[in-house]
Amino acid sequence: MRWLALLLGIAILGGVATVVIALQEPETPHAARIGSTSPSEPSPTPSDTGFTDPCGTFDTNMRTPYAITGYWIMPSADRCNWRRQLEEIHKVGGDTVVRIGFGLQPRGVDAEGRILETAPDDQSEPKPDERYGHCVEDGLTCYQAAERDLKAANPGNRISWSFVFRTDEQYGDGVFRCPQMEKKIVVGDRVFFRLIADEDGSDDATCDFSSKGKGYHLILVSAGATDSLTELLDLGDRFGIKVFPSLPLAPRDPTGVTRANPRHIGTLTTLTRRILQDYGTRFAGRDSLGGVYQPFELVIRDWADPENVPTLQVYAEQHRIVEQVLPGKPILVSPYLDARKRVDYTSTPAQVGEGFKALARTGVGIIAPQDSRGTGKVGLFWPNWKNQPVDERLKPVVGESTYSTAYWGATRDYYRAMYESRLELRDEEGVDVQLWANVEAFEPSATEKCGTQGTRGRTDKPRLDTAVTLVGPYVSKIISYMWSDFFTCGSPSLAEDLATDWERPIAIQAIRAKRQIQDGLQIRGYHLENVRVTLSWTGLETPRVVDSQSVGWFDGQPIADLPPAVGQVWIPVDWESVPPDAWVRVEVTATDGRKAAEPVYYHNND
């Protein structure tokens, strides 16, 4: 999904402005949940407690559910690997997977009708692409055969652009609009689809190729021998997991590869429409199809003129197709953040809040911003920590510095700003969008490298717990990039650590609140029943310890706009004894002695 040099891209960088620092946190309003895949709705129910297929017997019982409930997964030639991954994801409470996808690419063609590895405007030495060299019909290349058939309909017809799209999915007849000119081509164990697009992107339903000669775009799809999405949806039904397949990734602008190329919007929307029409035909009613994923990555910022931002233009056009063809299925997008002060064109929390609105207006249903801690672009810290040195693992990115020197704001500041923008959009414009968090499960440098994931290294569960704490009360679901290899490398792996430590408490917010006539503190988070709460602040000699089981009150009912597993515990507090303006450190400890990896803070400035 990302800059990791796998498939998707580099950073776009935004503008700079003033720091926004959070003080006391207000209680989050109990807004109603929205969207067809809101976490308050049940995921597909596992169909049985175990099933057997050619990959073996798999257990569908959930045993160790963690706070993160969704994960990215990579394409895999080993279908048994997918089955193992979904079983592992299900075991730690995962109910959502996001599928990394592939990109539409313009390609040149040589004099012999062979698809080249590069685009027509690429100045490098062109070479035939071996993958598409296998596509032949009647002794002709598939390009030559398509041109022959177009000219047979009208001698003035021509192919003005050629595009390729690689996938491990296989489509049904729903992908064709004009079967007399479009076809599935099987060459041995290789499968290709030939699609023909109008130059203007209109995708003319009349299929009139004969009355007037004109130019067409050829889209040659290299498909899978079997349909990977059908297999993923079947597994989703088995394990109660919703699947978000990727939309076709837009071609990149050759003058700036972090931008989508609006020149090819018409062809991209044609391919998107055809694929989604096929999904609608074959997967109508499949509960495990949760929505679709927009894979073109961008940095979220306050764009001066969003309507003229090429990537947002491509988003809007592609998303309009989703709304038309797959109504009710939301689009998930995962932009990233960049809070670094020493880098040009980064953004403050307030600027990101405005960018969130612009992004939502492109028609997305779910915005899951990357917390950007794994890349070091944002830090996990509280406002009262701003003058402390940054985490050692961040120094490869921001050097020797304090948090306030390195960053415009903290993770919590950015998610709070986006949460507030979300409420404003809903209340003022009627735009409903869910805010999730994409917590990065890796570190900036690979002191312990994870498989094929470039230079990024594995992280640990305490750091992951800390990220869950800091995105806190502003998101309705937490997902993570990505399952393999970041959760599965090393021994013990991060997935194994989650399974053995899943019940450790995680606090996400502390709010001053009354219960009946008594004043106190309400703490929200995961696994807070019967916890011991320790309160401390600067100048207090002996921390105050409160046993919530004896004098507190726990409520495990779901809270609107928060993940369903979040509960809350209330404890009495003598606020007269707490100094004004004190930052109260709130630590929670389970009955077995396990303490939350990260405290939460309450700023006593009432």
Annotated CATH topology of the domain at 70-100 and 227-500:
TIM Barrel
Q: Number of helix segments?
A: 13
Instruction: Please report the first level of CATH classification, the CATH class of the domain at 70-100 and 227-500.
Output: Alpha Beta
For the largest beta-sheet, the strand count, sense and barrel status come to:
5 strands, parallel
N-to-C CA distance = 43 Å
Q: What topology, given as strand order, has the largest sheet?
A: 12-4-3-22-19
Estimated share of beta-strand residues: 15-25%
How large is the radius of gyration? 26 Å
Mean pLDDT equals 90
Number of strands: 30
Shape: elongated
Q: What percentage of residues falls in helices of 4 or more residues?
A: 10-25%
Low-pLDDT regions: 1-41
Return the structural class.
alpha/beta
CATH architecture of the domain at 70-100 and 227-500: Alpha-Beta Barrel
CATH superfamily name of the domain at 70-100 and 227-500? Glycosidases
Report on this model:
- It is a single chain.
- 23% of the residues lie in helices and 23% in strands.
- The strands form nine sheets. It has a five-stranded parallel beta sheet, covered by helices on one side. Strands 5-8-11-10-9 form a five-stranded mixed beta sheet. A four-stranded parallel beta sheet has the order 15-16-17-18, covered by helices on one side.
- The radius of gyration is 26 Å and the shape is elongated.
- With 606 residues, the protein is an alpha/beta fold.
- The protein contains 13 helices and 30 strands.
- Among the domains are: 305 residues, Alpha-Beta Barrel (TIM Barrel), CATH 3.20.20; 99 residues, Sandwich (Immunoglobulin-like).
- It comes from Herbidospora solisilvae.
- InterPro entries: DUF4434 (IPR027849).
- This is DUF4434 domain-containing protein.
